[in-house]
Specification:
Distance between the termini of chain A: 73 Å
Radius of gyration of chain A: 23 Å
Helix content of chain A: over 70%
Oligomer: homodimer
Shape of chain A: elongated
Structural class of chain A: mainly alpha
CATH architecture of one domain in chain A: Orthogonal Bundle
CATH class of one domain in chain A: Mainly Alpha
Largest interface: A-B, 91 and 91 residues
Order of helices and strands of chain A: HHEEHHHHHHHH
Number of helices of chain A: 10
Number of strands of chain A: 2
Chain lengths: 219, 219
């Protein structure tokens, strides 16, 4: 197909397609004339993945290129390709060097203990490690350990979720679709989990305080 | 105590304290001279809460003022004060009016069914409702229903988490500390859950693909 049809079938503008070609996110079509190239279904699928990574995953063009390179290189084990893709979607909690390191050291220990207790095989290079440490340290600095006490509860809930999620994307059977699913699922899943947590909190607050609310209001 | 000691004890600069006084986030001290006021432990606690809401919760000064007003007004039932506080920490998913409404209508139905099945008492005014609908609609638009299929799994995990979280903040027994804990816990909890989910995903990917990774690399 020509670029016009590629645009129609993928829903991506011709200008964007040309930009992705220049940036190396989309392989060139087969040259059929001085100013013409032919594209195939592989291009439609790749465009869909590029848009999912950029629009939904919020990845930069450079990060998208790295993820695609890992997907396309059969020498890169799938576990590693998934790890690289996941790292691009992990917001980093700003480290505050001025803050006392005691809180951070305590948080490091709490997280290492948790990981050991649960038998999780995780690399210290996973950027999520630093994020978890910073959050736990922030809670300690606020003089509050409620959240730290909920670490085990949170970890158990997330392990149950992750087990089903990873199995679902690996079941897709195709490297590209597995990595695409992991990036999109990780990003959208964050928002969906956060939203469902708030709805569940409202329900539980209603259960726990609903009866008391009326009484309060009449005081 | 004078403003200098209030600053030392709270760790908040005198300039910030004066700003919070002007903005009505901190009640005035007791006037003891033409340019002097005396502050007490209540001011220290209120400053701690203001900093938690602004620095950790990411609330604007206006949102902080609304939350404090709900905390301070005993006529506002605690359940409602918690709801107002929570609403300030809910990121809104941008609605895209151009996108087909069929995906959104389907997402609305899926969420309404979920809430009915689980017997959740939630108000359609909860901004998390719109966020959840937008995420589900986005997944449908990508032509993918894996995430929608995991809705029940996510909801169950979040209900378990929320039940313990709400009980923990209500157990604090003090309106101000309950609302402060809800705001801080909701915001920090989002980051901690997202980080633990990624660590758990790495572990599950290792479990599921670890053996295959070596074989892949030798292909």
């Amino acid at each position: 197909m020509r670029v016009g049809e590629l645009s129609r079938r993928s829903g991506v503008s011709v200008a964007s397609i040309k930009y992705y070609l220049r940036e190396g996110l989309l392989p060139s079509g087969e040259r059929t004339g001085p100013n013409q190239a032919a594209y195939d279904d592989g291009h439609v699928r790749r465009l869909r993945m590029v848009r999912a990574l950029i629009d939904v995953g919020g990845l930069s063009v450079a990060a998208t290129r790295d993820v695609l390179a890992a997907v396309d290189d059969p020498q890169v084990p799938l576990h590693e390709a998934l790890g690289r893709a996941q790292a691009t979607t992990t917001p980093r909690h700003a480290e505050n060097a001025e803050d006392d390191d005691e809180a951070r050291a305590g948080a490091e220990r709490a997280l290492a203990d948790l990981v050991a207790r649960r038998g999780w095989e995780v690399s210290p290079q996973n950027p999520a490690w630093g994020t978890a440490v910073e959050v736990l340290a922030t809670y300690t600095r606020l003089g509050d350990d409620d959240l730290a006490g909920q670490l085990e509860l949170y970890a158990g809930a997330m392990e149950g979720v992750a087990r089903r999620e990873v199995a679902a994307v690996v079941d897709r059977g195709d490297r590209a679709r597995t990595v695409e699913g992991a990036v999109v699922g990780t990003v959208l899943g964050d928002s969906l989990l956060a939203a469902l947590r708030r709805l569940a909190q409202e329900h539980c607050s209603h259960e726990l305080l609903g009866g008391r609310a009326g009484a309060d209001a009449q005081d």
